[in-house]
Write a structure and sequence with these properties.
This protein has about 375 residues and is an alpha+beta fold. It has two domains: about 170 residues, Gcn5-related N-acetyltransferase (GNAT) (Aminopeptidase), CATH 3.40.630; about 190 residues, Gcn5-related N-acetyltransferase (GNAT) (Aminopeptidase). The chain contains eleven helices and 16 strands. Strand 3 and strand 4 form a beta hairpin. The protein is elongated and about 85 Å long. The termini are far apart. It binds coenzyme A. Coenzyme A binds next to strand 13, helix 9 and helix 10.
């Protein structure tokens, strides 16, 4: 298809031509604009002309647009959508002259190019990336409905610079972003995290009958083994579902607690809950279990964010959240009320995004290696 002319409220997106060379050269030779682009900064206008002449406007794989500001008639930037055979996806890119930054133009142009890719090119997958050191571009991608997918690197075409980047993705049906996998067995240094079995009820009773353990958890202490048998049966049944996540924490041959996704909504956010038996507190066990679970939920299942909350009278749980790199997100007064318990409790909520988790883990690992 010949590159079409598109229109937004403030912009005309049209094919580029050699007459655009002076305007394009003005930004392509500007270090502030070219810094994180894959093209090396244009040193002479000949480079710009060479590029403009090389554009094939009839290509079915590359659609390059110049962005014209309607009010001034000036060319203020360019971008395009490009087919990537190796990834079987469309890629969107853009750059704007410096004086047009901060006015929402990149978002406006990118949204229109993405609409074009979805409706005219029938795109089912659209990707893009931005250098970690260029976070504003990430805002544009999020404004366009793309979501962070993974960290990667990219190079300038001439190999003169390599950038760590965040890869973003949009897929038509949400596939490739998230896949439910169910409660898969996870091993850590000291623990086995696995599905619950009906036969776990005796171990469950040990901690579920201890009022110290469930003081700040929603259920009441189990009075008899039958209570634990019932919950073990329920959890073993739930474990058959691919969208259910509840791990038995097995330590030295017995189940000492659990870590679960209390609820999740359309694969975007997972809300966590956890508990272990009192004799095992303060040995780093829950932090170890949650680290493996967060890795799994973010990298294998594909949740975008994980959150958790604790009763402010139960600071140990908040400490686990902090040790996991989670950030405080708000205090909810009188959030917890439990029948038979004394008073109400305020909830301190914490959360972490997938990209923050991956960042945080890398920093922790660097710190760990430095200590070694
Ligand atoms: C909350 C709970 C899961 C923590 O498990 P854990 O295995 O002891 O956690 P970790 O050992 O990984 O980390 C606990 C941290 O809290 C700290 N801590 C313990 N008591 C604390 C207190 N009163 N104030 C502040 N920090 C405290 C510990 O020192 C430790 O931090 P450190 O490693 O920096 O020393 C466990 O106490 C528990 O099961 N409690 C009962 C159930 C419950 O409350 N669940 C959470 C509901 S939100």
């Amino acid at each position: 298809m010949y590159t079409p002319i598109l229109e937004t409220e403030r912009l005309i997106l049209r094919p580029l031509c050699v007459e655009d060379a002076p305007a394009v050269f003005a930004w392509a030779s500007d270090e502030r604009v070219a810094k994180y682009m894959t093209y090396p900064k244009h040193e002479t206008i000949d480079t710009t002309l060479e590029w403009l002449r090389s554009i094939d406007h009839s290509s079915d794989a590359d659609y390059d647009f110049g962005f014209v500001e309607k009010v001034s008639g000036e060319l203020i930037g360019s971008g395009g959508v490009y087919w990537e055979t190796d990834r079987q996806q469309w890629r969107v890119g853009y750059n704007l002259r410096h004086q047009s930054w901060g006015k929402g133009y990149a978002t406006e142009a990118a949204q229109e190019m993405i609409r074009f890719a979805k409706t005219e090119l029938n795109a089912v997958k659209i990707g893009s990336c931005h250098a970690v050191k260029n976070p504003n571009s990430g805002r544009v991608l999020r404004n366009c409905g793309l979501v962070f997918h993974h960290y990667s690197t990219y190079q300038k075409f001439d190999g003169s610079a390599t950038f760590r980047c965040k890869e973003y993705l949009w897929t038509k049906n949400g596939e490739e972003l998230t896949h439910h996998k169910g409660t898969v067995t996870l091993k850590t240094e000291r623990l086995t995290l696995r599905k619950f079995k009906k036969s776990d009820y005796k171990d469950i009773f040990t901690w579920a009958s201890n009022p110290k353990v469930n003081r700040y958890v929603s259920y009441l202490p189990h009075k008899e083994l039958a209570d634990s048998e019932k919950i073990a049966g329920l959890w073993a049944d739930e474990a058959k579902q691919m969208d259910s996540y509840n791990w038995a924490i097995e330590y030295e041959g017995r189940v000492i607690g659990n870590i679960d996704v209390v609820r999740h909504d359309n694969l975007w956010e997972a809300v966590m809950g956890w508990q272990i038996d009192a004799p095992f507190w303060n040995r780093g066990i829950m932090t170890e279990a949650a680290t493996a679970v967060f890795d799994f939920l973010f990298c294998e299942v594909g949740f975008h964010r994980i959150s958790a909350g604790h009763d402010t009278r139960n600071p140990a749980s908040g400490k686990v959240m902090e040790k996991l790199g989670m950030k405080k997100e708000g205090l909810f007064p009188q959030y917890y009320y439990k029948k038979g318990a004394r008073g109400t409790g305020d909830a301190q909520k914490y959360g972490i995004l997938k990209e923050e988790w991956l960042d945080w883990k890398e920093t922790e690992q660097e710190r760990f290696y430095e200590l070694c």
